[in-house]
Amino acid sequence: MSARVITITSGKGGVGKTTGVANLGVGLALEGQRVIVLDADIGLRNLDVIMGLENRIVYDVVDVVEGNCRLQQALIRDKRLPELHLLAAAQTRDKTAVSPDQMASLCDDLRSECDFVLIDSPAGIERGFQNAIAGADEAIIMTTPEVAAVRDADRIVGLIEAAEKGPPTLVINRIKPDMVKRGDMLATEDVIEILAIDLLGIVPEDENTIVAANKGIPIALDGQSGAAQAFRNIAQRILGQEVPFMAIAAEPGLLGRMRRLVGR
Amino acid sequence: MSQKVGTRTADGISIKGTKEGLVVAIGEGSWPDLVDRLDDDLRRKAAFFHGAHAMVRVGTRELGTEELRQVQELLSANQMQMSGLVTSAKKTAEAATALDIPVARQSDDSWPLEAKPHHGGEFEEALFLKRTVRSGQTVQHPGDVTILGDVNPGGQVVAGGDVVIWGKLRGTVHAGAVGDDSCLVCAMVLAPTQLRIGNHIARSPEGEPRDPGVPETARVQGGGIIVEPWSTNRP
Question: ipTM of the assembly?
Answer without folding.
Answer: 0.77
